[in-house]
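As a warm-up, study this chain.
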Amino acid sequence: MRLLNASGCLDALTAPETVRALDAFVTKTVTPLPREGNAPVRIAETDVGMLNSIGLANRGREAFLGQTLARLASAGVSVWVSVGGFAAVEYAETCAALDARDEVEAIELNLSCPNVDEAPESAAEIVAACREATRLPLFAKLSPATWDIADSARAVEAAGADGLALVNTIRGFALDERTLAPVLGPAVGGLSGPALKPIALAAVFACRRATKLRIVGMGGIMNGRDALEFIACGASDIALGTVLFTDPEAPARVRSELHAELAAHGFSDAENAVGCAHDAASPVHFSPLLSAG
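Now compare it with the structure written out below.
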């Protein structure tokens, strides 16, 4: 089991000690051209988690490759690059540029950002284009905002994905208590944190049944017990997101708590616990969202 951060939830250059407590660092999403992102307010707390509407703000592919990547690699942990775009060819061009860089261990394809317009091509079409452009491992980051996420997982597996990142945030909305105006500048944002956890667990469970792809589980993981539940549903690796905003020591803490949880349940290590929830579950009891078809 490897411990990562969720893309956009940790700045490696300002929090190097937190990064070094991870097994791999996932970058903010890189787009071909620089993006200023959405208008403020971009981040807001809610009773059940956090809303964000960053809008993929980043310096663009050229600056990332020419300046940022080498600095990230110097942190001493493996680097996964999150890649975004607004057409399959844009994703593929960035993947091709990353293919020649020794600093990159894997690519996460951000196929489901709720704060920007999506590419017109399907997730599978984007993965297929990227597969032709790079030999690096490709992890498809999927949205939980689909009735049958297992079908999407099968499609990206057939297109050449090596793994899944589950899940991205889901659209959410909050009003100012006093004015009743939208809290976020763009009004709607991506909801993360504890409220996302049951949705993310359902997605991991469904995709574990539907594919043989390695799964990075994320969505509301706050402690070792949460991490164990993702592993039990089928995640082989874990990513921390919202918790990093409030607890920079979360990687070490969650790792320690997870080891204790595994021991308490009789598992010698995390690999032996992967998918154990499936042993006690019957497909008859689940909707199409959880069925492998």
